[in-house]
UniProtKB/TrEMBL annotation, chain A:
This is Nucleoside ABC transporter membrane protein. The keyword S-adenosyl-L-methionine does not apply. Its main location: membrane. The lineage of its organism: Bacteria, Pseudomonadati, Pseudomonadota, Alphaproteobacteria, Rhodobacterales. The chain crosses the membrane at residues 6-25, 37-58, 64-84, 96-115, 135-161, 192-211, 217-236, 243-261, 267-287. It is a multi-pass membrane protein.
TrEMBL record, chain B:
Pfam families: Bmp. GO terms for cellular component: plasma membrane. Coiled coil: none annotated. Residues 1-21 form the signal peptide. The keyword Signal applies. The lineage of its organism: Bacteria, Pseudomonadati, Pseudomonadota, Alphaproteobacteria, Rhodobacterales. It comes from Jannaschia helgolandensis. This is Nucleoside-binding protein. Residues 27-300 form the ABC transporter substrate-binding protein PnrA-like domain.
Length: 309, 363
């Protein structure tokens, strides 16, 4: 085994790329859950974002337009969930699961004519001399714009929830929708907006896969990334900064296992391939172990709300 | 003409058709694909073969296909469905369909089955067919030996099966003939078609200094990863796999191994039409036109191109076998003596690396 062939600089740069789709989706889901809604349809919204973004990217030739359409596509899927759960008061868990199945099927229908086509990808930003710096040039200044957008979103979500009045209202709705309602806040409206935001983020994450990371369309290309995003929200105990850590940790293990294999590590390939999921499960078990104090979960997460009750 | 007469005529036609159909029933040819026909690689080429059959026989055949059939239990359902649908001959086009093909063949003794790249022929109505891809690998390995500057060439393997191991060994042996310092890096993707995974595997290789990537998976994602690296100042070369992957010419894709199944499909469907179909195990290569090397671009030095073309000519003429001794196995034990040529039985069951490749083959 020759571990010296693994370059830490490139490893970190690749893990940031590998983690970006999960980071975007997890960040959106965190906001949704902060508002007290459990949307298990992240996978379905991601894949709809991936295909709608890809179609728009191919047809117009502009990856930016692709990302824009992907956000709309993801949000549209999310609003479907929103109408069902918030207006018609359907069960959130069942509706979320249905959304995932629906998204996977619908996306492969839309994608029929788009298999094996290349889309214009986003180029890495060229920041002049900054991109030529050793280590930092590649890790900090050598990415495509969406990586920076995702980091900016982490900061924005953190600041929004912590410092703004609207963020406070959103958290109040998640903690006690009855109290928020009694105070005159529009619980349903707040939740619908949160759901749409979550869908748009998931859509962006999916489009990052089909437009930058691969860049191609394949059926089922999200390959479980949406579920990992859901796990990361719990892992992060509903905090934006920790969502970032969780996503990068997961992305890091994915990239590291391929690098270890390439470097010829004497570890069974099957174990390396399963490593990211094993680590996710272990972390979730550890977290649920200390969940006894129960301070992290939004108190009204997953509970239906109707103004009459 | 009045509407009623039109309808009556149509009804009469409709009723009489089944009777007529027995006499002129076209041969129904079924294809089971492991990926989408638009994968730009393996499945795309099989589908080109299907279209060639249609072009050759016109009204005498009717073809049906199913895409993206997973290897394993679901394959049996898909093949059974096709046999129930009246197919006369079914081509199952991936290694992992072996057991399912034989299981269905037992239930439909009148239907002919052809399993690609397999070895199981448990019933008289099952044939297997394969192509000597390792002949193409010998050519791309030679080119890789000329092209690498970092002395590291990478091979994205799908599954550790004989067909892939032949490819790894043939590429390595011929790269090493040109460049004795060459090192072979193998990554197992455990999939035939997963663009995200293939792209990540290619990126991990590039990050570690691999500058020539040979892929044994079906999507163009590794080509796209290499292109991205080259746009950012890298120097990485790739080869088209199964299909020409011409959209990545002239670089990173500098040549390709093209599978041409059309001659075989036309011959076998013809045998069904004539009623002369018999069980067989076919293994064609460059001489039969089943393995073709796509255009070698000018990104390759002239000397390398000449060497590759010479090898293509020698293999096509039957003068050169890519596994010609002396060759030792990985542990140093002799496999082939000087001048000895590998027999098909050993190749078809190849489960060892040749000397010089590091790492173990997973089980």
């Amino acid at each position: 085994m020759d571990l010296s062939s693994i370059s830490p600089t490139l490893l970190i740069a690749s893990l940031m790329v590998a983690a970006t789709p999960i980071l975007l989706a997890a960040l959106g889901e965190m906001v949704v859950e902060k508002a007290g809604v459990l949307n298990l349809g992240v996978e379905g919204m991601m894949i709809m974002g991936a295909i709608s973004g890809f179609i728009a990217g191919v047809e117009t030739g502009s990856p930016w337009l692709g990302f824009f359409v992907a956000a709309i596509g993801g949000a549209a899927m999310a609003l479907l969930f929103g109408v069902l759960t918030q207006v018609l008061l359907s069960n959130q868990v069942a509706t979320g699961l249905a959304l995932t199945l629906f998204g996977l099927g619908l996306s492969s229908l839309f994608g029929q004519g788009y298999v094996g086509i290349k889309a214009n990808s986003l180029k890495r930003l060229d920041m002049g001399f900054l991109s030529d710096l050793p280590f930092f040039g590649r890790v900090v200044f050598g990415h495509d714009p969406i990586v920076y957008l995702s980091l900016l979103l982490v900061f924005a979500v953190w600041a929004f929830l912590k410092f703004t009045r609207a963020g406070l209202v959103l958290r109040a709705v998640g903690e006690s929708h009855d109290a928020a309602h009694a105070l005159g806040y529009h619980v349903r409206r707040v939740r619908m907006m949160a759901i749409a935001f979550g869908g748009a983020c998931a859509g962006l994450g999916g489009a990052y896969l089909s437009l930058v990371r691969v860049p191609q369309w394949t059926e089922g290309m999200t390959a479980g990334a949406g579920w990992i995003a859901l796990a990361i929200v719990v892992f992060a105990s509903w905090r934006a900064g920790r969502v970032l850590i969780g996503a990068y940790l997961f992305g890091g293990i994915v990239v590291l296992q391929l690098n270890l294999q390439t470097a010829g590590a004497k570890v069974p390939v099957e174990l390396l391939s399963a490593a990211p999921y094993l680590v996710t499960i272990i972390v979730l078990v550890l977290i649920s172990g200390r969940a006894g104090r129960g301070g992290d979960t939004p108190a009204d997460l997953g509970k239906p709300f109707h103004a009459s009750t | 003409m009045k509407l009623t007469t039109l309808l009556a005529g149509a009804m009469a036609l409709g009723l009489s058709t089944p009777v007529l159909a027995d006499a002129h029933d076209p041969v129904k040819v079924g294809f089971i694909y492991v990926g989408p026909i638009g994968d730009g690689g393996w499945t795309y080429q099989h589908d080109q073969g299907r279209l060639a059959v249609e072009a050759e026989y016109g009204d005498k055949v009717e073809t049906v296909f199913q895409e993206s059939v997973p290897e394993g239990a679901d394959a049996e359902r898909a093949i059974t469905q096709m046999a129930l649908g009246g197919a006369d001959i079914i081509f199952t086009t991936s290694f992992g369909y072996g057991e399912a093909t034989n299981a269905v063949a037992a239930k439909f003794p009148d239907v002919k089955f052809e399993h690609a790249t397999g070895f199981m022929r448990e019933y008289p109505n099952v044939s297997t067919y394969d192509a000597r891809f390792y002949e193409g690998r010998a050519v791309t390995g030679t080119l890789a030996g000329y092209l690498t500057e970092t002395n590291k060439i990478g091979y994205i393997g799908s599954f550790p099966i004989p067909e892939v191991i032949q490819g790894i060994n043939a590429s390595y042996l011929h790269a090493k003939k040109i460049n004795p310092d060459v090192e072979m890096v193998v990554t197992w993707a455990y999939t035939w078609f997963d663009p995200a995974k293939e792209a990540d595997a290619a990126r991990a290789m590039i990050d570690q200094g691999v500058d020539v990537i040979l892929q044994h998976t079906d999507s163009t994602a590794p080509q796209a990863a290499a292109q991205e690296a080259n746009e950012n100042g890298g120097r990485v070369f790739t080869f088209g796999q199964a299909s020409d992957m011409a959209q990545f010419k002239p670089s990173p894709r500098v040549a390709s191994i093209i599978d041409d199944w059309a001659p075989y499909y036309i011959e076998r469907v013809g045998a069904v039409i004539d009623g002369t179909w018999e069980q067989q195990a076919s293994w064609g290569g460059m001489p039969e036109g089943e393995v073709v090397i796509g255009e070698i671009t000018d990104a390759v030095p002239a000397e390398a191109k000449a060497a590759a073309e010479e090898m293509i000519a020698a293999i096509t003429a039957g003068e050169y076998h890519p596994f010609t001794g002396p060759i030792n196995k990985q542990d140093g034990t002799p496999w082939l003596a000087d001048g000895e040529v590998a027999d098909d039985g050993t190749l078809a069951g190849m489960d060892f690396y040749v000397e010089g490749i590091s790492g173990d083959i997973p089980n």
